[in-house]
Write the structure tokens for this entry.
Amino acid sequence: MPKDTTAGKPTTRRYSPEEKAAAVRMVRTLRVELGTEHGTVQRVAQQLGYGTESVRSWVRQADIDEGHQPGLSTADAEKLKALEQENRELKRANEILKRAASFFGAELDRQHKK
């Protein structure tokens, strides 16, 4: 399925995990059948109507997730994303608490000076 274009801009398509896994299996099967990696990703991508670079990245990520290649696994990337979000939230909460402490500290000073 080629990408649709609206006003000259390509639209991004979300692929299900099943579609991605099927594409990866097809690439790996084709590599075994042909005895080479050359051209397999492009061939499968064209057959399925997917973007070549999308399929290439899915194969690369599957290799990482399965421990065949070094890199950040999908599970670790999700954990990292969650931790980064938590870190941002904690920084915001700390900033709010600092401002509140400063405000109430100034109020106490004014009350003591009266």
